[in-house]
Predict the structure.
Amino acid sequence: MVSSPLRRATETAEPLARACGAGIEVLDDLMEYDANVDHYIPAEELRATRDERWTAMVEGRWEDFGGENPAVFRARLVPCFDGIVAAHPGGRVAVVCHGGVINVFLAVVLGLDRNLWFEPDYTSINRVAAARTGERSLLTLNETAHLTARKEVPR
């Protein structure tokens, strides 16, 4: 089990790690692009209120609101995920992180230039098959059946 160091990620990882009898490896490089901003407003609230930060976020102007430069963020994430794959040959790894991390990593997997291209649901599951030789395939995107089956879809 691997997690971002941010509290909402580690708290999400803890029950799964306990259930699997696994530890949690915390990787700083999995932090969200806006982790050092002095405020947090959920993306759906920014969109609903037509906040200028929403436009800046979608347009990739993350530095306008204190976020990390998108190119720097991508350059940090790709080696992090490559390292996770290399460290777990033939294994399965749950990575608990954030919407921007998911967007950018899956954009790399799919060969997309755009960083924020979909809105992942909270606690959704995205599965990627990854080889140490560099091949990556998106298996599932934004799975939420584990939430709807228990009627716990957060919004």
